[in-house]
Amino acid sequence: MNSAVIGFPRIGKNRELKFATEKYFRKEISKEELIITAKEIRKENLLCQKETGIDYISVNDFSFYDNFLDLAFSFNIIPERYKKLSLNKMDTYFAMARGFEDETRSVKALAMKKWFNTNYHYIVAEIEDDTCISLDSEKYLEEIQFANSLGITPKFNLIGPYTFFKLVRFTGEKGLESFYEPVLKAYLDLIEELKSQDISYLSLEEPALVADLTSEDKDLFENIYTRLLANKDKLKVLLQTYFGDVRDIYVDLLKYDFDAYGLDFVEGVKTFDYVKNYGFPKNKTLFAGIVNGKNIWKNNYKTSLELITNLHKITEAKIVINTSCSLLHVPLTLESETDLAFEYKRHFAFAYEKLKELAELKNLSELVLKENADLDLALTNLNSVLNKKDIFVYNQSLFNGRVNSVNPKVKERLANIKEEDFTRLPEFNERAKIQREVLNLPDFPTTTIGSFPQTKEVRENRKLYRQGLINEETYKNFIKEKIKDCIKLQEELDLDVLVHGEFERNDMVEYFGEHLDGYIFTKNAWVQSYGSRCVKPPIIWGDVSRKEAITVDWSSYSNSLTNREVKGMLTGPVTILNWSFPREDITKEEMTNQLALAIRDEVLDLEAAGLKIIQIDEAALREKLPLRKSDWYSEYLDWAIKSFRLVTSGVKPETQIHTHMCYSEFNDIIPAIDAMDADVISFEASRSDLVILDALRKNNFKTAVGPGVYDIHSPRVPSTDEIFNALKKMLSKLDSKKLWVNPDCGLKTRGEKETVESLRNLVAAAKLLRETE
Ligand code: GLN
Ligand code: ZN
């Protein structure tokens, strides 16, 4: 029995990589210093896996920004606009990731998208008609040799060509047909180089196989892999899948000359059935994804050992106990959680602890498989071998009895929800008329998505408050000052609908979690979201309910400072769920409805406090859409959309409900988004060429829209002209009475100077539009 890890978090125990890259961006450290920090993290990662006894440790799971970008970059898939900057290699790479600006030049970043159903974002590489693909394997070989120098023969990870073709963007006339050969050749060149390297496997990651596959998809896969595998010689190749099962292609896959297959037994609800029904070849190796790479609950060893014994009965193949996906999606270690009570902590496993689970499962399954008999007998024997106190018994003690806490009041309220609680009345058009009169906003109203720059000062004050070094009053007064300045600034900028700026929030989900019963929090459990950005998802521990009003004081204070409208600012239930680590004992639907009731109470309180506009962010709604289209409604949207409606159905007709979504990639679910029945929606659009607008028109989208007019992920300041042109383009496709003007997303991560300049240009562009239309 062996163990493996698909990938390891690369941010470092104290987010060293984040801080170093950001320093590098600010030109505070040199490239060499950044590389040293990265190398230290890589070393620590490799050694801790080695020390825990992991047999197949990965390299090339590291990245300075993103692995998809790394792959494109190594194939020289670098759009002309970045090459033209004539920067050094690393700065060209970062320019693609985050845009570039100096006195004379200004180039936007490449688009960024969610990596399958996770909250990690990859950079969408672009192939232009004259892109000349060629391999630069420097990073790859360096990582392999570095592992070798630590006494490790690593598994070399690479995003596979099928997934690459599915995700890359062709920006010119030429498409897949033109670039199929050159891309494949780059892979083949790399395979050639890997043959002389000291690695255990080339692991080609093909998560795109877990979606619904068409016959063209399967043909593409076949063409690619027939070629690649014919050239592998003695190089061992693992086909690594994750984020679900490969039901559409499982049987075919087995015919290929892979040496090993990595299958996901956690999210892959049908993986076991397929292996059982169609078998698994005995001369291949099965990397069985058993330890959950996405959630933080301890592995139930009994269930895992059962699975392993069952697999063992089905196939004589060698089994490797694997993570279900990269551990990139969980925090690094529980060791840093010094404030979290043992009562909670003992139920969790972060990346380091998962290594231990892999090692323990490996030992346990070796003992169990020796019995080769039924599991119960083996486990009984195991108990006596290991004696009571030992690993297995302890693990089982965690699962005996209820883990999560239950609140009967919440359960009762949920049980009493009626069908009409999901519908807001009067219907949209009638409400729109009333709101137009009451709010009296100009055409193309300008607004922001909610947060204003969280400066060092803001973060430091919060830290001091949390550490008890300043008292509540001092802290609150500080926030009030910030709000006052923020409102004043927005008045000066002449924005129409103001926000309070969200200075009191560390994070749009954690903040709400902290005010809800049923949540627990970590101190240092960061997970990479994109590049140097990390998030710290809270944990749903029990039934959720609102302890007291959450945002009402801040919002009514802001409202009292101005005659303009202030938007109340909340996070919606689906997003709170999607950005938390969920329970595993009740359904997502039930957890979401609990959250919806809590936020509903907050909405009604805001309305009662005089807020006429309330935004309920569903930034992450799109994110957890099942990867199989065939599951979209039945497994997700049916209840997710309803739960949003449950939040808003109690408000008065004149109260305007806004929602916001990050990423406009919802072309295929436009009717569902419209069915949320919000009055206004803002979403990211500037990085995706406004393609969504055609789809909105085609679907007769009723909700008023604010497609983001500039990218907030980049420090670049958009000019008035640029925004004006974007708006003109929008107007050519949308009803002018329904167009709002706003940035792509919250401004929290931006600097103050660029924010003010950008917003000034935004307002100017909207005014220009009012004059010309
Ligand atoms: N209201 C939030 C903000 O402005 C929305 C953030 C988001 O969509 N990710 O920060
Ligand atoms: Zn957003």
TrEMBL record:
The encoding gene is metE
Which residues make up the binding site for L-homocysteine?
I449, G450, S451, E502, D617
The Cobalamin-independent methionine synthase MetE N-terminal domain sits at 3-314
Q: Which residues form the Cobalamin-independent methionine synthase MetE C-terminal/archaeal domain?
A: 444-767
Q: Which terms does the UniProt entry file under GO BP?
A: methionine biosynthetic process; methylation
Q: State the name under which the record lists this protein.
A: 5-methyltetrahydropteroyltriglutamate--homocysteine methyltransferase
Q: Can you quote the record's cofactor note?
A: Binds 1 zinc ion per subunit. Binds 2 Zn(2+) ions per subunit.
Q: Which cofactors is this protein said to need? A: Zn(2+)
The alphabetical list of record keywords is: Amino-acid biosynthesis, Metal-binding, Methionine biosynthesis, Methyltransferase, Repeat, Transferase, Zinc
One family name in Pfam for this protein: Meth_synt_1
Q: Which GO terms describe its molecular function?
A: 5-methyltetrahydropteroyltriglutamate-homocysteine S-methyltransferase activity; zinc ion binding
Positions annotated as active site in the UniProt record: H713
Superkingdom of the source species = Bacteria
Q: To which pathway does this protein belong?
A: Amino-acid biosynthesis; L-methionine biosynthesis via de novo pathway; L-methionine from L-homocysteine (MetE route): step 1/1
Q: Which reaction is recorded as catalysed by this protein?
A: 5-methyltetrahydropteroyltri-L-glutamate + L-homocysteine = tetrahydropteroyltri-L-glutamate + L-methionine
Job of this protein: Catalyzes the transfer of a methyl group from 5-methyltetrahydrofolate to homocysteine resulting in methionine formation.
> What's the EC number here?
2.1.1.14
Amino-acid positions noted as binding L-methionine in the UniProt annotation, renumbered to this chain: I449, G450, S451, E502, D617
